[in-house]
Amino acid sequence: MTTIEHWIGGAFTRGASTRTGSVFNPATGEAQKQVLLAEESDVDAAVSAAAKAFETWGDSSLSQRSKVMFRLRELLVEHEDEMAKLISSEHGKVVEDARGEIIRGREVVEYACGIADVLKGSYSDQVSRGVDVFNFRQPLGVCAGITPFNFPIMVPMWMHPIAIATGNTFILKPSERDPSVSNLIAELYAEAGLPDGVFNVVHGDKTAVDAILDHPDIAAVSFVGSTPIAKYVHEKASATGKRVQALGGAKNHAIVLPDADLEFAANHLTAAAFGSAGQRCMAISVGVAVGDAGDALVEVLKRKAEEVKVGPGDDPASEMGPVVTAAAKDRVTGAVAKGEAQGAQVIVDGRDLTVPGHEGGFFVGPSLLDHVTVDMDAYQEEIFGPVLSVARAADIDEAIALINANPYGNGTAIFTSSGAAARRFQREVKVGMIGVNVPIPVPMSYYSFGGWKDSLIGDSPIHGPEGVRFYTRAKTVTTRWPEVKQSVDAAFHFPTSS
Ligand code: NAD
Questions:
Q1: What residues does the Aldehyde dehydrogenase domain cover (predicted)?
Q2: Which residues are catalytic?
């Protein structure tokens, strides 16, 4: 069985690792590869390689950095098929969906191609007579990224292209569930001309994460994953003086007003709830049917949920693949059972689905729960699977209040034909990313991605302008070049302009 190794200093290595984890094919349920699980000394080796590489990369020209990004972008296009199939085989999502995350990740590389423009500083002439002020931003040093299983290429790409283009070196600790594509990215960076040690991959579990969080020579940590781990990472890395960005879990609501086109709304809700088997941080997991919209909406949702074609990710006919692990399957079926026991109506039940020829796979079909209320576990927990709960609200006030009372605030959407209602919603809702008749409003790479409340711990959204700010720090320089002899007496009062 293949063993997936670390990539440190420009080469694959086993380092000091002896422990391994199984990487499954979720469509068959079989372990297909082993991944090394790093020890503290492996993280140490990666930090040493990255720190050494920073001595030259931190001083590289903007054009050298953007040339690497342009070349990487082309290689990502060339290898798209191979990467999409690889992701599908370890994550389970359908190949076309994997292609989608490659494209969205590549857009961050495209943003990083223009780093020379983005990094331009500012200049103020003559702030005082003969005095000018300018500022510019410099890289931090060695940065690290810890990422979740659900977007094995896109989420790391929210981090490393920006970190590297701004002059940092980087250590990626990808999810141990679907680690292979990160090694392929490392090879593509090398082919694109990135010097050894600038991008490193250390595979592992909590041991590797803790070694990163505690390491004194890592300047910044980016984390994306579940909220409890985001809180842990934020607290622990902050305690050792690092910059931290920590994005957490979600429970995303979509409001459907009675004036919405129900067929259009239900179509989008179905795709947003069940695409990637609901394993997206921007998946819609709660539909909030307002007033008269309720029964009619549930009727259309039922029909659409029953039509979803579930099968292995490499079958072009499949619209939805399996969930990532057997434990994830148990969690999803358990959530539906708890919902039923607590009084929700199970309109579509995906618990007993089997896919012929793939009986051992981690398949679970779409489930639709109606009359879900806030006290139910199905509402309170992030199920992170193909379960759409429908809650009812009397009016838009009640619907907005429901969303605002939820501890998460990642994404939300409204379906309506009223501009006034949409405008009110976007102003009043306490959520970071909002869609108007758009179910999954993931911002483009030249904006930044980030939720509110328990969906983002700390204050730093990811990629785009916020990413550039996160991976750099500013210097402000005040200059004077005297042309004629001026008074040589230094003033002892606090300087003011003259
Ligand atoms: P996870 O929190 O279990 O794992 C994320 C990373 O943390 C992995 O690299 C994992 O190895 C590591 N990790 C896990 N347990 C740890 C521990 N006890 N100590 C230290 N490190 C640990 O998340 P996941 O299951 O891989 O991904 C799904 C979660 O990620 C969902 O909650 C989803 O909402 C969230 N997510 C959020 C966003 C966002 O942008 N806000 C994006 C994608 C996924």
A1: 15-477
A2: 281
